[in-house]
Every structure is written in structure tokens, then in C-alpha cells.
């Protein structure tokens, strides 16, 4: 193979391995979701505040932020807010109730009647292959009458030992269900509070009790070409701990983090954005990589460190995030 063609193959293979779209699914434009701001679906005042918060993604919640007696109110409010509020650059996701709760069908059928639909659905407490099959059937039913043939990005929330232990078959089944259903599996989220309660762990501020589970979520997400969202830091007034936790999540390989309060948005979005110096480093590395490939060198020295193909992947990830976040 001619060397320029070979170089193209090396660069393209690397891009395909970065988190963009799951194997077997159509590739989609990478959408930055550095912070996902949760807001209770029945809290109209807070929802109307979202467009002022410059957040990448809002999650209008019908699940645990909403009391059982307010579920109907949350569905109708979410539907109305989708139609009435101009969220600007902020992507809109809706968290429905879990399949197990028996409330998910009512959530879907009420919310998907909105004239403006959310672009993503967050499904909580994912634990089994059967649940994903039920969810796919429910979503197919809910979109049956919608003329625009919508497709939703799906965020699967893992928050139990069972969900994590079943992760691989769940993801395989979800990817294959998406061929026949109006969703594209886009991300895995980790739910720390339910997870800690499920395994009987005590939550600490350095979150050592969560490390193994968080790394499982990142590994599975990357194996399936998905984004990965780290846990909510519930101690939202402690901004220093939040910064530390968000920077750690970014180092682990998460691509974003769930948040619950406007204070948290800029801190988290900054932690998940590459710095200008890092972007310059990445651009230079890619250029140097191309040059050394042409000279027949697979590894080389760049800014004092040995670089080979994994360095190229890291640099491409950084540029992808920077470009899609408009940095
Ligand atoms: N989304 C949008 N706006 C929010 C918000 C959110 N999640 N949380 C707070 N705000 C707004 C408040 O309405 C207030 O607006 P104002 O200044 O215009 O009156 C401002 O931000 C400051 O809020 P503050 O008074 O500090 O907080 P609060 O007492 O109103 O609310 C919580 C505190 C924790 C109840 C609230 O942040 C919340 O409901 N978060 C989401 C909880 C959730 O979804 N949990 C489940 C998912 S894990
Ligand atoms: Mg939960």
C-alpha cells in the first residue's frame, strides 16, 4: 500500500475507535454533553431558568426528583415546557421512570405527544436484557402515530450491582434492538447514590467505594463507542470537592457528569473541556505523528515524551471534544 494511503488508514482507524457511535449503528455527529443538569419535571420555574444557564444538556426528570403523587403533573409539565421553552443551545433529554416501575409507558405516551420532542431519553435503573426489550417495544408503540418518524438518543443509567454485572449482554441487545427501534444508544450514565445503597456502601467525598463501578461503566461505554457520564455530586455547595471530582471523572475517561444545581454547571463544563494548551499540544502531536509515519517511524519523541499510536488516539479525542464544544 502506498504510504499516504496507509497513513489515511491509520488515522481513520483511530477516529473510528474514539467514542462516537456504537458498533453497527449509524455514525452520528459527536455532541458535547459535559454537564447534564437534572431538574424535576414538575418544577416549571426551574425549567424556565435553564436557557440562562449555558448548560450542554438538561434532563427533565419524571423519575426520582418527582414525588409519586406528582407523576402526572410532571408528565404534562414536561410536555408543555418542551413546546413553550426555547432552550437555545441546550439539548433536551427526558428521564422517564424505569421499566420496572410500571410508569414508563405512561411517561412515553404523554411526553411524546409534544409538538417539540426531546432529542434524548434517559432510562434509569437498567438491569436486564428483558427490560431493554420492553423499553424498545414501548417506544415503538409511543412513536407509532408520530408523522416525523423521530429517533432519540438513548442514555442508559446504571445504578445497581445487577445492572453492572449484566452490562455486556444488555449493551449487545440494546445495540441490536436499535436496528428496529427509534433510538440510538448514545451514552451510559452512572448513578452513585442508588448504587451505593444497592451494595450497602457508605458514600465518602473521595468516592473510593465507587471506583470499580465507575471504571466498569467507562470501559463498557468505550467498548461500545458510547459517551460516559459520571455521578452527581450531591454536596452541591462544596464547589472545591466538585472540581476535584469532576477533574477525576475526566481523567477516568468519562465525557461528562450529571449535575443538580446551576452552581455546578460551569465547574463541570470546564473540567470536561480541554484547556487551550492541551488543544495546541494535540494539534502538534497529530502533525508530528503524520510526519513520523511518512518517515516510517511508529514511535517518536514529542515534547519530552515517547509517543506512539495511543498518543494519537488521545490527541484525536481532545480535538473532537474541543471542536464539538466550539472551543
Ligand atoms: N435547574 C434549574 N434551575 C435551578 C436548579 C436546577 N436543577 N436548581 C436550582 N435552580 C435555580 C433556583 O430556582 C434558583 O433560581 P432563582 O435564583 O431564579 O430563584 C437558583 O437556581 C438558585 O437555587 P437555590 O436557591 O440555591 O436552590 P433551591 O433551593 O431552589 O434548589 C435543589 C436546590 C437541590 C432542590 C435544586 O437544585 C434541585 O431541585 N435540583 C435538581 C434535583 C434533582 O433533579 N434530583 C434528581 C436527579 S439526581
Ligand atoms: Mg437513581
TrEMBL record:
UniProt family annotation: Belongs to the HpcH/HpaI aldolase family. Citrate lyase beta subunit-like subfamily.
Keyword Transferase: yes
Catalytic function, reaction form: (3S)-citramalyl-CoA = pyruvate + acetyl-CoA; propanoyl-CoA + glyoxylate + H2O = 3-methylmalate + CoA + H(+); glyoxylate + acetyl-CoA + H2O = (S)-malate + CoA + H(+)
Swiss-Prot/TrEMBL keywords: Acetylation, Hydrolase, Lyase, Magnesium, Metal-binding, Mitochondrion, Transferase, Transit peptide
Alphabetized GO MF terms: (S)-citramalyl-CoA lyase activity; hydrolase activity; malate synthase activity; metal ion binding
SUBUNIT field: Homotrimer.
UniProt name for this protein: Citramalyl-CoA lyase, mitochondrial
